[in-house]
Amino acid sequence: MPQEEISGLLVINKPHGMTSREAVDCVQDWFPGSRPGHAGTLDPLATGVLVVALGKATRLLEYIQAMRKVYRTTIYLGARSATDDAEGPITPTPNVQPVPMESLQQTLSRFLGEQDQVPPAYSAVKVQGRRAWKAARRQQNVELSPRRVVIYRSVLLAYSWPHAQLEVECGRGTYIRSLARDLGEALGCGAYVEELTRLRVGPFRLEDAIPLTASPGEARSALRPIAEAVAELPRFVLEDDDRVHRLSLGQRLFVPQFLWSSQLAKQESGELAVFDRRGQLIAIAHWDAQRHELAPAKVLATDK
User: Are 252 and 271 in contact (CB under 8 A)?
Assistant: First the structure.
């Protein structure tokens, strides 16, 4: 008899020195036969929240990747790194003078909001179909294009030259290593990431993460519902079982006004997370507010 597929989300605390892929392999050991995926790669130097998806939840990773992230980082000022972190060759800046705290805070404030950011040379960004870090290791010059990112909040928690500890809240695709590098260049002293911990991804917090030393039983108990992956999408509960059945078959669905919730009545066209009356996530669907129609994009519950 075939094993029932396990679907859910697991928040793990990735340890220092391990790649995100290696951490996911540990999760696979907890759930033999599964093919887990993760949202948002952490460098080996980094620790903290890594959200791992199993089963049907892997189809929702893009929504987790789009969530805001919060990091705590220690930046070393007065030197530069080839990798923009403590793992690369370090070049001290000659004749560097300590940066006053006021200058550091003022310069840091310039990196708030939307901005163009160039990823680190040692990154997983693809250039002409190849990972940038592979070319960098071969000492090949790679032209990385700037990417539009957003930094919502950047707070200086502690400062004692040459160490500055920050807490940063940012959007998708933001590199803290790039922030450290650019901050150092703006200050004229150079800088790199010395330590990095991801504290939060959307609703997934470090306090709720489990260590990789947990037992398979503890890991199973820590599984979270797949619906948490779409916590930031508007939610619509479809009460009618016949329409739930049709949506689960991938059919477009006309939703008459008498079935609308108060939220749906105000909802503009766009993606919705659709649930049945028992609270099961049925599908991610596009809501056409003009036609009063749901078009399923990802069906997650099959009607039996």
Answer: no
43 is catalytic: yes
Contacts with 179 (C-beta within 8 Å, 6 or more apart), sequence order: 111, 117, 151, 154, 168
More confident residue, 257 or 218: 218
Q: Two tokens at 294?
A: 């749901």
Cα-Cα-Cα-Cα torsion 198, 63, 282, 27, nearest 10 degrees, comes to: -40
Strands 79-81 and 90-92: antiparallel
- Under a CB-based contact definition with an 8 Å cutoff, are residues 180 and 208 in contact? no
Residues 52, 12: contact at Cβ < 8 Å?
yes
Question: In whole angstroms, what is the distance from residue 7 CA to residue 22 CA?
Answer: 20
3-state secondary structure of 95: coil
**Cβ distance 201 to 172 under 8 Å?**
no
* DSSP H stretches of helix in the chain: 20-30, 61-65, 101-109, 132-137, 176-187, 216-221, 241-248, 262-266
Say how many C-beta atoms besides its own lie within 10 A of residue 169's C-beta.
17
Catalytic one among 43, 84, 85, 182? 43
What type of residue sits at position 104? L
Residue type, 5: E
Model confidence pLDDT, tens digit, residues 109-163:
999 999 999 988 765 555 555 554 444 455 556 767 789 999 999 999 999 999 9
Strand partners, 80: 91
pLDDT score of 289: 87
DSSP code at position 124: S
Domains and CATH numbers, the chain: 8-67+203-228 (3.30.2350.10), 69-191 (3.30.2350.10), 233-299 (2.30.130.10)
Query: Helix, strand, coil proportions of the chain in percent (round to 5)?
Result: 25, 35, 40
